[in-house]
Amino acid sequence: MHLPEGITTFRQHPDQRWEVDFAPSFDKNSKQISFVNSVNTTKGGQHVEHVMSQVVEAVWDSIWEV
């Protein structure tokens, strides 16, 4: 996935097993690229839903704190 120039991405390494990168989306569609055990999981799955739900919750919490 290629992002437009100048887009800031956010990378987290919560532990040795996980690496999570995310960037803002400027259209109504979210996109994901995921790998499990070095295998590209193009259709996502429970691991993607698990991470996305935590990211969305953190963003909403930040918005409502303002």
Outline the structure in words.
- It is a single chain.
- The chain is α+β, with helices and mostly antiparallel strands and 66 residues long.
- It is built from 1 helix and 4 strands, in the order ββββα.
- A two-stranded antiparallel sheet has the order 1-2.
- Strand 3 and strand 4 form a beta hairpin.
- The protein is globular.
Broad structural category: alpha+beta
Fraction of helical residues: 25-40%
Order of helices and strands: EEEEH
Q: What are the segments in which pLDDT stays under 50 over at least 5 consecutive residues?
A: none
Shape: globular
Return the average pLDDT rounded to an integer. 84
- How many H/I helical runs? 1
The total count of strands amounts to 4
Beginning-to-end CA distance, first to last residue? 32 Å
Rounded to the nearest angstrom, the radius of gyration is 13 Å
β-strand percent reads 15-25%
**How can the largest sheet be summarized?**
2 strands, antiparallel
Strand order of the largest sheet: 1-2
